[in-house]
User: Which sequence fits this backbone?
């Protein structure tokens, strides 16, 4: 029997932990600083949510779990353990089951790594962000470079798979600064890197400074583009880009994130989490209450953390698929679109192909790797 | 019907904001013409746009019944005229229908440019003039200074000027008495054949065309068969009435009276302002001198942002033109903008009013192209063609020379800004004709090319004088000059909607400014875009818009695909507000913004 569309992407579970020790000035993720957390209530809420979302999907094989944040490495290990135990009660898990947890590189987190592993986490992504103390301070981080690298080494000794996050195109960073920093990161021989260009987001401390004109030294688009090209070149041999901002050697890609990018199904629990599930060809999107207090209350009183559940139309599904899949080096598979959608795209694909922006071979289209840096402009051309 | 000796017909002349409409409201209120509960502010400004902008566009009329201190009952007919220079010609026409004027001057401000322009028209029409010094309730009011100014600058006697506050009502009674005592009664022969002046006309959805008339001789009754003498068309009169200011039907109008008639006329174009109306049978043979129709002087292209709305735009323009004979239009096609209309207006305000009405009343978003004036192009073979659109400029090898329209501009400005005003006029190729002082204000008269004024002169004038200058102009005629057509090339292709006529000596500077502006206005594309200004085949300015280097969402927000979809929708909406030209998207506002001069 042919696989259903979503099955070509896979099936995973996302769990959002919304708390951090401090709010970083650039961050617009759903992360909050709270004086105290009633850990038992929170743990119960996650367990209840798991049971709820398992309802319709208990017959599926789950291949990934991702603890994202916020700072999930601040979760009590016993909560992670309880969640993962419940997960294996509720679903059959795949042989290559991947369980990732995002970690901040301070000693608090490192001390929990062994327990996380025992609980079932087999991959951590460490938010090192910069390899220079002055910059870490400017980014509002609570760790030094030495500390971060020590935590990263600890992680590598404990988990099968690790990844390291860096933010570049930072204030006052030159092309050669970044070249040196990336060289150093590659020298650790990681099997996965997430390299994000600093984005100034509205409603963050950096966003406000930017609007006032007092955020100095942010690289302009030309420098940022040069940095992106340099990154593509430097990683090409050992950790080629497999997504706009993600680099890995073959087989070490984040399988969870691939589910998003390949248009798979994913359940999502925790404040602000977004899920997508498909039943009998009908796709549904869920969004949980974003505010942690409201989410907790909703779970306890309404028995669901979801704030909205909406039907994703065929057109929207196809748009989302292209928006996500074209971030991948492997590209998008046109055979996953309806005939009408395909026909509507043909002329534009040809045009973008002629302009050297899009590649095509059979049903597969992908963005020319060096042009990923203008992906949004390409997407508007393709989909407008 | 009223005895001639008990009729007074008058208009009010004033600079904008000096209180013309407020004074009219007070006169209406004081005489109980409208029940207090039905009063609304600015009774006579009937269109939304008029009320909003505080300007009068069409002439409006009100008949006021007044029992004077002498115990007699009078009929006072007020024609409220447009105050803006664009409609100066309509003012002069309306003034022919009345015998006197109230000259309203804000006593905190003094005489301004439009005060002068309008009062000269009243003097031209042989009006008796009663000066009214308004806003005496304000502390800054300076009656002596302003009275002296009226005598010095305008040269009329201000000893009988009436101090008024249109706000509090002080002096309103005195104003009514002055109208009765100082303004002349109309003359006319009740027994002569009907002779009436067609003062104005407009379209009403229920009644058809409404014709405002002033009876000179004879009588006009409901049921009469009348003749328009200019074209000998005849009509049956359905209705006769007066404005109070709402329409009130009456049986007949006699000499000296002002009122309206309807006669199932379908189009405003069938009625000629200034025409003589008489009876079909036993009519007069002696027509009034008549007026020439007002001619559009400013032209621009109007295109729908959404090209699917072209037919809606045609419909809107046709409807508006029905009611406005001074507005002209013809279809235009532009390579950049598709199908639209080249429209002619009396001036920039007229343009804005029409454009606003199309956008608002018909819900059509518009792209407006650069306003242009009419050039006279003299060909080698001795013929002359009128050029309304730079895109239509004939091949230069056949052209002998060009002439452009000139104006006489009068500007009144406080001393401290005089230098800036002179510089502005000089920059716009002006020739100074006069410079005099009235107290601490200077009055400068400049001969200027209209094309330097139509676009943003008034805005610039206001900004360099912090709003303290007043401005008025008259067309004076055509003069030869070294004018060239400048084209703008975007990505090596000429964009017709951006072509302008410009003086040869200023072409390079304008070209450079436009290229720089466009470089900021056009978003970056995936390729670099040359933006050039050219005269004939010669490039005179060039900028390069660098290629887009970065436009990406670096981070992944978990599975939040909705966020990405919303971003796409936003970008798509932005793209829709642009016009595709070759491979380049040009935002709609660029067609006007590129022309604005900052210096
Ligand atoms: N204080 C004061 N304000 C007045 C007087 N007459 C008019 N105004 C105000 O001046 C402004 C312009 O008046 P308006 O009648 O619209 O002027 P128009 O442009 O000549 O028709 C409005 O805000 C009026 O309220 C007055 O006698 N005293
Ligand atoms: C969900 S965040 C949180 C992970 C973890 N709490 C941390 O801070 O290390 C995941 C990654 O997004 C990246 N990131 C967050 N905000 C960013 C921004 N404004 N610009 C670029 N990258 C950003 C950081 O590299 C971060 O590690
Ligand atoms: S970057 Fe990470 S640690 Fe900083 S506020 Fe955001 S989620 Fe929390
Ligand atoms: Mg007014």
Assistant:
């Amino acid at each position: 029997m042919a696989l259903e569309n979503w099955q070509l992407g896979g099936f995973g579970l996302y769990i959002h932990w919304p708390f951090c020790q401090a709010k970083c000035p650039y961050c617009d993720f759903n992360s909050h600083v709270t004086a105290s957390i009633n850990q038992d209530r929170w743990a119960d809420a996650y367990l209840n949510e798991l049971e709820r979302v398992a309802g319709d999907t208990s017959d599926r094989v789950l291949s990934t779990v991702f603890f994202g944040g916020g700072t999930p490495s601040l979760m009590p290990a016993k909560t992670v353990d309880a969640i993962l135990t419940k997960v294996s009660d509720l679903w059959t898990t795949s042989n290559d089951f991947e369980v990732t947890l995002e970690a901040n590189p301070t000693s608090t987190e490192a001390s929990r790594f062994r327990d996380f592993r025992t609980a079932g986490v087999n991959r951590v992504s460490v938010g090192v962000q910069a390899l220079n103390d002055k910059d870490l301070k400017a980014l509002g981080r609570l760790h030094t470079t030495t500390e971060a690298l020590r935590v990263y080494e600890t992680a590598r000794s404990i988990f099968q798979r690790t990844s390291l996050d860096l933010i570049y195109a930072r204030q006052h960073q030159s092309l050669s600064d970044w070249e040196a920093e990336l060289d150093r990161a590659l020298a650790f021989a990681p099997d996965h890197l997430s390299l994000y260009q600093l984005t100034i987001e509205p409603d963050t401390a950096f966003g406000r400074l930017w609007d006032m004109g007092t955020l100095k030294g942010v690289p302009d688009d030309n420098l940022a583009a040069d940095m992106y090209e340099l990154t593509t070149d430097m990683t090409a041999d050992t950790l080629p880009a497999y997504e706009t901002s993600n680099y890995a050697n073959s087989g070490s890609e984040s399988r969870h994130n691939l589910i998003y990018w390949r248009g798979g199904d994913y359940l999502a629990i925790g404040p602000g989490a977004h899920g997508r599930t498909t039943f009998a060809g009908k796709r549904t999107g869920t969004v949980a209450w974003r505010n942690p207090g409201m989410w907790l209350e909703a779970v306890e009183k309404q028995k669901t953390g979801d704030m909205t559940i909406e039907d994703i139309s065929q057109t929207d599904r196809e748009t989302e698929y292209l928006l996500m899949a074209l971030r991948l080096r492997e590209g998008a598979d046109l055979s996953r679109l309806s005939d009408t959608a395909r026909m509507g795209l043909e002329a534009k694909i040809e045009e973008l192909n002629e302009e050297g922006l899009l590649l095509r071979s059979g049903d597969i289209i992908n963005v020319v790797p060096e042009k990923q840096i203008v992906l949004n402009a390409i997407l508007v051309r393709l989909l407008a | 019907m009223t005895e001639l000796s008990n009729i007074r017909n008058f208009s009010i002349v004033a600079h904008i904001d000096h209180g013309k409409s407020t004074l009219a409201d007070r006169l209406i209120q004081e005489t109980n013409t409208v029940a207090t509960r039905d009063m609304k502010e600015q009774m006579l400004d009937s269109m939304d746009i008029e009320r909003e902008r505080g300007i009068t566009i069409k002439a409006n009329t009100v008949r006021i019944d007044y029992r004077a201190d002498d115990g007699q009952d009078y009929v006072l007919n007020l024609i409220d005229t447009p105050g803006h220079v664009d409609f100066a010609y309509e003012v002069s026409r309306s003034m022919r229908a009345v015998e006197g004027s109230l000259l309203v001057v804000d006593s905190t401000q003094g005489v301004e440019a439009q005060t002068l322009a309008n009062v000269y028209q009243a003097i031209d029409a042989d009006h008796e003039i009663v000066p009214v010094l308004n806003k005496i309730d304000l502390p800054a009011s300076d009656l002596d200074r302003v009275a002296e100014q009226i005598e010095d600058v305008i040269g009329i006697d201000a000893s009988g000027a009436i101090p008024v506050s249109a706000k509090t009502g002080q002096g309103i009674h005195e104003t009514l008495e002055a109208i009765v005592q100082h303004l002349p009664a109309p003359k006319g022969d009740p027994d002569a054949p009907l002779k009436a002046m067609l003062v104005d006309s407009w379209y009403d959805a229920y009644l058809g065309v409404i014709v405002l008339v002033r009876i000179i001789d004879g009588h006009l009754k409901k049921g009469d068969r009348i003749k328009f003498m200019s074209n000998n068309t005849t009509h049956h009169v359905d209705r006769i009435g007066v404005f109070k200011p709402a329409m009130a039907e009456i049986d007949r109008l006699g000499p000296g009276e002002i009122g309206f008639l309807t006669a199932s006329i379908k189009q405003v174009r069938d009625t000629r302002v200034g025409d003589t109306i008489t009876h079909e049978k036993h009519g007069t043979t002696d027509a009034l001198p008549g007026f020439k129709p007002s001619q559009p002087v400013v032209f621009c292209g109007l295109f729908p942002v959404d090209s699917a709305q072209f037919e809606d735009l045609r419909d809107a323009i046709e409807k508006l033109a029905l009611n406005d004979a001074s507005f002209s239009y013809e279809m235009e096609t532009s390579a950049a903008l598709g199908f639209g209309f080249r429209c002619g207006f009396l001036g920039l305000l007229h343009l804005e009013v029409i454009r606003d009405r199309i956008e608002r009343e018909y819900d059509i978003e518009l792209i407006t192209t650069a306003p242009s004036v009419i050039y006279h192009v003299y060909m080698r073979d001795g013929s002359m063609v009128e050029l309304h659109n730079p895109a239509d400029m004939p091949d230069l090898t056949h052209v002998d020379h060009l002439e452009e329209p000139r104006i006489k501009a009068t500007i009144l400005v406080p001393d401290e800004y005089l230098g800036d005003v002179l510089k502005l006029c000089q920059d716009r190729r002006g020739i100074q004709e006069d410079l005099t002082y009235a107290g601490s204000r200077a009055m400068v008269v400049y001969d200027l090319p209209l094309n330097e004024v139509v676009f943003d002169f008034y805005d610039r004038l206001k900004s360099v004088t912090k709003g303290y200058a007043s401005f008025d102009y008259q067309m004076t005629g055509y003069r030869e000059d070294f004018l060239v057509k400048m084209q703008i090339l975007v990505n090596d292709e000429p964009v017709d909607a951006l072509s302008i006529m410009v003086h040869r000596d200023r072409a390079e500077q304008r070209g450079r400014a436009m290229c720089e502006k466009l470089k900021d206005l056009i978003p970056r594309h995936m390729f670099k875009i040359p933006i050039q200004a050219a005269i004939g085949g010669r490039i005179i300015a060039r900028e390069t818009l660098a290629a887009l280097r970065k436009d990406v969402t670096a981070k992944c927000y978990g599975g939040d695909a909705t966020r990405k979809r919303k971003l796409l929708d936003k970008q798509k909406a932005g793209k829709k507000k642009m016009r595709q030209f070759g491979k380049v998207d040009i935002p709609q506002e660029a067609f006007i913004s590129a022309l604005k001069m900052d210096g």
Summary: DSSP finds 13 helices and 33 strands in chain B. The mean pLDDT of chain B is 88.
